[in-house]
Amino acid sequence: MRLDNYETDGFYDEMFDDGGAPRSRADALAKRLVALSEGELVRRQKAADLTLLNMGITFAVYGHEAGTEKVWPFDIVPRIVDGSEFTMIQRGLRQRIFA
What we know:
- By secondary structure, the chain is mostly helical.
- The chain folds into two domains: 1-35, no CATH class; 38-98, no CATH class.
- The protein has helices spanning 27-35, 40-54, 83-98, and strands spanning 58-60, 69-71.
- It is extended and about 45 Å long.
């Protein structure tokens, strides 16, 4: 899989910096993605979607022309959250749960 042409177009990207290099916390994931053959990520996403459908992890969209049963959206590429970000999220979740 090629990541050398990836552009952030000026928006913040949690995996890559403005120059297109992987952020330190995402370096291992970027190396793993680059090691995949062309089309492998797409094949794995399709397999995950099919597994979710077969397990019944779906939701209904009433009135949608393509049918009512939709697979729950799932991205096989994980979101990377570093420790300080996670600590802030954790504090917020605890506060809301308590409330």
